[in-house]
Amino acid sequence: MLRPQPDDVSVPPGAPAQLYPLGDAAVVVQFGEGISPVTHAAIQAFGAHLAQHPFTGLRECVPAFTTLTVYYDPWLVSDGGRHPPYETVAATLRKMLAAAGAPAVAAEADLVEIPVCYGDAFGPDLEFVAHHAGLSAAEVIARHAAPEYLVHMIGFAPGFPYLGGLDARLATPRLAQPRPLVPAGTVGIAGPQTGIYSLPTPGGWQLIGRTPLRLFDAAWAAPSRLRAGQRLRFVPISAAEYARTQQHEP
Amino acid sequence: MPAPSSMSLSILHPGLLTTVQDLGRPGYQHAGVVVGGALDAGALRVANLLVGNADGAAGLEITLRGPHLRFDAGTLLALTGADLSPTLDGQPVKMNRPTWAPASAVLAFGAPRAGCRAYLAVAGGIAVAPVLGSRATYLRAGLGGWHGRALQAGDLLPVGQPLPTGQRIAAELAESRVTITQASWTPGRQLCPVPRPSPIIRAVRGPEYGQFAAASQRAFWDEPFAITAAADRMGYRLQGPALRRLTDAELLSSAVTHGTVQVPAGGQPIVLLADRQTTGGYPRLAQVITADFGALAQAAPGQALRFQEVSLVEAQALYLAQERALRALPGAIRLQLARP
């Protein structure tokens, strides 16, 4: 799955990562400019490297499409104020990046199927997305259910998967004002991304359908159904199938 | 579950929004689980130290209209953050000092006098079961705290065993153990600031600052922004001059954190708080400095905020100064206890 593709030439593997601060307790390590399996692999590899070789004061790492954000404790990394915190962390990360080398190619990940009932009340923005793309609603559904997506990361909310591989024709801008509440299971599009709301939260994505599956439950041993690196496919279902599946969900 | 002999705290009336909070659950953001925890972490840490707890013990975060609660056994407590007119058995109690509440005493609150969020620490801490390493309540996921939700009337919260320092503070305060007693000492203003309405909030530039029009950059630092009614533990939606980005290119979602100021296409900024999401796709105009998270948490809907730009070097110097003051507090408390 994680093979370089022709359109990845602008983000060559091994290109120097950029570092910049996110406030006074985090640094962003940027590995590329666009969604790409190569960039994804580099982020996964550097995250794994940091997990195996944590520096004093490392709090945690948050992977995203093109970035790994490294949270740190400014008191601990500066040894109680003896060194400048940001410069100390940035120097440590630059050293690690230089030493880490090219990421290993990941093994073929398992494929997860997510049933989705598209349109109507479950997907109030399906018509808008269709209009924006110059397609019919049925064509939007077909194009959304066709690809094998890559779970780039879990973020925004517990268990919320960000997926790479959306048909470029379906890319649609976010809403100007987020909705105050999007129901759990709702499938949305934001720019070139698609994802699934795992919990009822505010949200600004264009909503096109809903899955009856639960994506997050604090009582599960692994509380997130999905994890970064998995492959995923959407399977269109009817409202009746949605209701049947939902009955069997916890 | 607590042993039958353990101390507890009965909720008689929940107030507007009262939750169990500690310093949050770092380490699970890769699964989309936010750090969360007390919005004014400094205030919770001070409250904990005043009752001899580790600074990260769980306490209660009390929002604007406070609860009524009863201590089923004699309890050492401290209140920090917002002054919501606290009383014990009807008698006004002072903020920011160790306080002995005899068995069956009722803590209640009145009109908010300053600030938005008060913190109650009790010696031994609120002993709910940790979830993913933390007792913090994450309301949106129904996770942690007391059954993942805000407190309700009838809840009976377990209280842990006080540490030796807490026992010593209690012993010095409450010789008779039956009267309400407050310590004569309190930490300085640096650790216990009186929350001010319409505060100035210091911030550094965010990663996408340069994508905003120069006039919008100036407006962000120069103009006031009102906190709208859409304000909760996740963030505040602000109302002010519309902030214009020079490009309408969609961003790829990346990390956002407590204090991130993001601007949707509508141009009205949102400042994220502890129960924010882990990642987001709106441009990050600015980032509130950690040293001002307390002032931000104490600002209520309807108030105005002003943002003031500081450099990253200044922000980290302020962080370290605040941390140094907090880390000096346990020693100062030990000195108080050593006085003849």
From TrEMBL, chain A:
Protein name: 5-oxoprolinase subunit PxpB
Entry-linked InterPro entries: CT_C_D, Cyclophilin-like_dom_sf, PxpB
Gene3D superfamilies: 3.30.1360.40, Cyclophilin-like
SMART domains assigned to the protein according to its UniProt record, in alphabetical order: AHS1
Keyword S-adenosyl-L-methionine: no
EC number assigned by the record: 3.5.2.9
PANTHER family membership: 5-OXOPROLINASE SUBUNIT B (PTHR34698)
Top enzyme class: hydrolase
Keyword presence, Electron transport: no
GO MF annotation, one: ATP binding
Ranges where the Carboxyltransferase domain occurs: 17-226
UniProt keyword terms in alphabetical order: ATP-binding, Hydrolase, Nucleotide-binding
Superkingdom of this protein's organism: Bacteria
